[in-house]
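User: Could you check the structure of this?
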Amino acid sequence: MRRLKSRLAIIGLMCIPLALSADPSLEPDDSNVDASIDNLSEPLYSPFIERYMLDEIRSLRIDMERSHRELAAEVVDRELGAADKAVSYATNTVTYFFYLIAAVSSALVLIGWNSIRDIRDKVHKVANEQVAELVDEYEKRLRTIEKQLKQETAHIESNREEINLTQEIHSLWLRATQESSPAGKIAIYDQILELRKDDIEAITYKADAALDQNEPQWAINLCHQALALDDSNAHAFYQLACAHTCQGSLDEAARYFSRAVVQSESYRDELHRDPALSELREHPLLIELLAPVPSIT
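Assistant: Sure, the predicted structure tokens are below.
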């Protein structure tokens, strides 16, 4: 490369005198280049110089090609050296790895594991124990989940039966509201009580139907059955008041009616609306109970 640079410098020096000999008025000034080219009167070269320059250029091309081949050969040599080092490193790594395996195997043999078969058996044993523990754990979880599923299934089945029962009872109540005769209502209430024996509302409404049939004692017995289930049932007290009024026991009727009003204020107005309680309207106990409270001014 140093030789190429020197030849290029020589060619440049040879071109400068040729330009000066062609026009002595030219000076190395960039502002006069265009004017000097227009005033040329003879060529800037001679056959000898041209031949010399062509030979030099040919020699330069040969030298550049030789330099390129040398550079390519050097690059290839370096790449081969790097590949050789990489292969050597990999080989050494694999060798050291096998040495390590041999050392570990020897250590295992020294501490009591005499063969690869013993190692395999021990590994299988440990694996089987771990798998057995996992199987037991998941069996316990599955049994717990199965138990919960059974409980949920039973709960869902119970709810379904309750829904069906409620729908059937609801349909019977609708039939009772459409029934006009007391005997027909009592029959429907009996069907409701067959489905649900502790239906207090059905018992009290059956007592009401019994009063419509002029059976006050039957109504009294039914109301006491309802109070045995719920001792604060206002409707049962109200039906007892109606039944005792029908029998002429006005004091008992007034006492039960006052208890019905205490449980529910909505029964207060029934005294003046229900014909069955007409005899109680002038009873002293109810007059005192139902008297309006004076306002404080």
